[in-house]
Amino acid sequence: MWCFLGINNQSFGGEDNDYYFDPSLIKGNSLSNSELQQFDYKQKIPPGDYKVELYVNNTFITQVTIIFKYNLLDKIQPCLQPNQIYLLGFKKSPINIKNENKCYFLSDIDSDIISSFNYSQLKLNLTIPQAKLKSKNTTIIQAESLDSGETMLFANYNINQYHVNYSDNIKDINSTYLDVKGGFNLGLWNYRQDSHYSYSNSSGGQWKTTRRYIQRAIYNISSQLLIGEGFTSGQLLPGMGFKGIQLSSDDRMLPNNIRGYAPLIQGIANSNAEVKVWQGSNIIYTTTVPAGPFTIDDLYSTNYAGDLRVEVIESNGTKSSFIVPFSAVPESVRPGYTKYAVTAGKTRFIGDNNLFSEFVIQHGLTNSITLNIANQLAKGYQAVTMGGVYTAYFGALSFNTTFSHAELPKNSEETGWKFHASYSKTFQPTDTSVTLSSYHYSTSGFRSLSDTLNARYLSDNNVSNWQDKILRQRSRFDIVLNQNLKDYGNVGLSASRENYHNSNGTNDQLQFTWSKILSNGISSSVSIAKMSNSLASSWYYDGQNADKGKSQLYISLGLSIPLGNNYNSPNLSFSTLHYDGENNYQTSLSGLIGSDNQPISYGLSYSSENQISQGTLSGSFQTQLPYTNIRATTSKNKDYWQVSGGIQGGVVAHRGGITLGPYLGDTFALIDAPDAKGARVANRNDVVVDRFGYAIVPSLVPYQYNTLLLGTENVDSRVEINTPDKRVAPYSGAMVRVKYKTSYGRPVLVTLLRKDKDSIPMGSQAFDEDNKIIGMVGQGNQFYFRANKEKGTLNIFWGESLNQQCTIDYELPKDNDQPLIQLMQVCN
């Protein structure tokens, strides 16, 4: 009898943390000093470069390649390069770095660092006093840890076939639509193309490519470069299509906790204190700070749901608090951050390939102030926008003003101003949110670039009265109110009014909504809307405005009832809509059937207008198969019968062949798991490994770690996935191959017997006939391996001398259904 102690984690914090196995304390005579040395601390980790998961105070930081080498005391220690020391997040640089190419041991960086290294999982955790660390963006990922993927060719397809048969003599309608979006990658460069084919029995078929472009990420400046056909952002200036080049900031490259807008919090603690940040009755942030000034700059964006209360709890139990205003509008930017977009090229869809340029810059100056600047230039046109956002206790107010100068046909020129203001505030005591925005054009001479190009187009095509064909808005006013009534539901009120320089009258809309979830999941809703249009008809191409002077009232009621408590239980709903003296009624039933791995969604409905007996009966179903999505709809009433069907999915061509899968996002993964047919990715029922060992994960979140866990429930028992969980952080647009190492063979547990009845040392290694390690001896002289041959010879080694090795010849039973084969073999 003998006992054995194994230690997985290595500690580097001090110089006395080595461990050693004393042979005199181990019973049995089969273990020599040299055999035990392989388990000593200093022999456990060979020197070299290791790609490890770096943690600080048990918080994941990033994946990084770290050098492990001998220090002056002849012990293997992690040695960090200057850029890796920066990742630790010290408030002040702990050492004076004179050589950027040199690496530094932990004891040289800071004597208070304590570390542990899990060799089997390649995880290095550094424990550092919190007082020495600055606020940490815990989700930052270094460029070296991002995966740009490999060169693949992909295409998404969406095919739909439509048929209508009329009961009278109207000709039947048949149409086909095919949409194809695809591309390929070369390193960080991504090529994308959008095309479609449409056919109808009345107009024939046509193939058209609508967009082509290449793009790449520039991670060190958190930006995206696009060359080809794209769209401007629509921030501050009207959005438009272009063919050219664009460089813009990409918030997806920022850590989660600094995306969007949130204020900077600054305060003072009199001792080591706990700081809690409250929004309403919820704690949204907590941390511990040392005595002195503190700063919190990594609050997650919280949808502008009201002011923040900061509570400081000192070590003696005393409490203090202060309020930080928190209201925002879409233009709000965090203090110290900048968003921008620069575009140059030719216009698309409007005008005739006119050259233009545009830049937009938004900078968060302080908690209270965001500055906005934008400019747009084209031949005979210029627009300049300046403004910003001001946040205070009364809410967030945005104000921008734009000046335009446009050269129009007939040698005319126009200049004008546009003013835009918006306001947002959530009143926490009553849980009332207010969003108000107003647009005002002070003069009729203001023109957007699209207005100017449209005017030139109409004039060039000899359209009479072209000045009146383009609607020029004078003002627009919008207000949205939302109120939570708690047990009585939620109500909303919205209103808008707009008028135009070249048309009398106004266009008005007023809407009231109420909704509530009742007991047992039953929900109800009410909507009342009134719309009126008194605009003149001069700006309509046909000179007619059928809705002029007309006021319409819409009243809608809805009720939804779940017919069970399971997620796939049917749902019965009723709705009615009254408008223009007409009444529309609809009853529908929807739900899921089938297995959890492949559910089928279905829907049945009956709708009618005025007379319930003369209605339309409709049905639909949709399901996601492992390699495609299929859908179908049909409807029938006394006048027609309609049916349609479609399939949707993706296909990827790679160096291993062609793989089918679901419809793909711009960033996706190719699972490469040889022999693992039937394996599914956890929480992704539509991702199944095919018979060639491949599967497609249709979407990954770029610039974040995505964990892909491959399940073995439906995999052949002869296949083992050695490391079923993988983590990958892709660039946007990357096509990432995720390689899983698998072992193929029948599972075998061998119990070794010795003629001298001695034990074979734990840790002895088993080699196959090709001299490859296939297993390690554990307790009870047993070892596990997968046999890919029905019979063979294995060699067991626990030393270098001839009496420290033995050989077995095995032959497996012919019963292939055994989940685990157990053999007892004499080792000679």
UniProtKB/TrEMBL annotation:
Tagged with keyword Transmembrane: yes
BP-aspect Gene Ontology terms: pilus assembly
Location (main, coarse): membrane
Domain PapC N-terminal: 20-160
Subcellular localization(s) per the UniProt record: Cell outer membrane
The PapC-like C-terminal domain, residue ranges: 749-814
The entry's keywords: Cell outer membrane, Fimbrium biogenesis, Membrane, Signal, Transmembrane, Transmembrane beta strand, Transport
Pfam families, per the entry: PapC_C, PapC_N, Usher
Bilayer topology term: Multi-pass membrane protein
Molecular functions per Gene Ontology: fimbrial usher porin activity
GO cellular component: cell outer membrane
Domain of life assignment: Bacteria
PANTHER family: FIMBRIAE USHER, OUTER MEMBRANE USHER PROTEIN
Family affiliation: Belongs to the fimbrial export usher family.
Stated name of the protein: Fimbrial usher protein
Natural source organism: Moellerella wisconsensis ATCC 35017
